[in-house]
């Protein structure tokens, strides 16, 4: 059974930094990609950043230049370094991973971690 466990959320002032971590219970090399999504109050869930098995990152326009996604295969973990945080970054952040198993598609989600940016 695949489990994704996020950590690192919290309360930070605007302009500050946080790093989120997502630890997987399986070898992350088995995933096509891993990513971070967020859901702000009253808004739909949106992709923040993703990284492929080969290490290619992809970012939402709203976080380009401020957030960095990375992965450590040895630790079965993916990270999101968030700098220059803005009030609009306040959301619950979810770790995501997907893969094909016997030609069937599976997507996995963590429980979420709250990030609150204050003025």
H/E element order: EEEEEEEEEEE
The overall pLDDT, averaged over residues, is 96
Distance between the termini: 40 Å
**Care to count the β-strands?**
11
**Biggest sheet statistics:** 7 strands, mixed
Provide the β-strand percentage band: over 45%
Unreliable segments (pLDDT under 50, ≥5 consecutive)?
none
What's the Cα radius of gyration? Answer: 14 Å
Helix content: under 10%
Total helices: the number is 0
Overall geometry comes to globular
Structural class: mainly beta
Write the layout of secondary structure elements.
Layout: E1 4-7, E2 10-13, E3 18-24, E4 33-39, E5 46-52, E6 57-59, E7 67-72, E8 77-82, E9 91-101, E10 104-109, E11 113-118
Parallel strand pairs: 2-11
Antiparallel strand pairs: 1-3, 3-8, 4-5, 4-9, 5-6, 7-8, 9-10, 9-11
Summarize the structure.
The protein has about 120 residues and is mainly β. It has no helices and eleven strands.
Give a quick set of tags describing it.
mainly beta, globular, 119 residues
Structure overview:
With 119 residues, the protein is mainly beta. The protein is built from no helices and eleven strands. β5 and β6 form a beta hairpin.
């Amino acid at each position: 059974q695949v489990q994704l466990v996020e950590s690192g959320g919290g309360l930070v002032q605007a302009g500050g930094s946080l790093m989120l971590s997502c630890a997987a219970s399986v070898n992350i090399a088995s995933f096509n990609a891993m990513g971070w999504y967020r859901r702000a109050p009253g808004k739909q869930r949106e992709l923040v950043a993703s990284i492929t098995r080969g290490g290619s990152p992809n970012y939402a326009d709203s976080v380009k230049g401020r957030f960095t996604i990375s992965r450590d295969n040895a630790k079965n973990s993916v990270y999101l370094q968030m700098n220059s945080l803005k009030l609009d970054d306040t959301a619950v952040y979810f770790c995501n991973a997907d893969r094909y198993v016997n030609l069937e598609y599976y997507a996995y989600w963590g429980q979420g971690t709250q990030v609150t940016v204050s003025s």
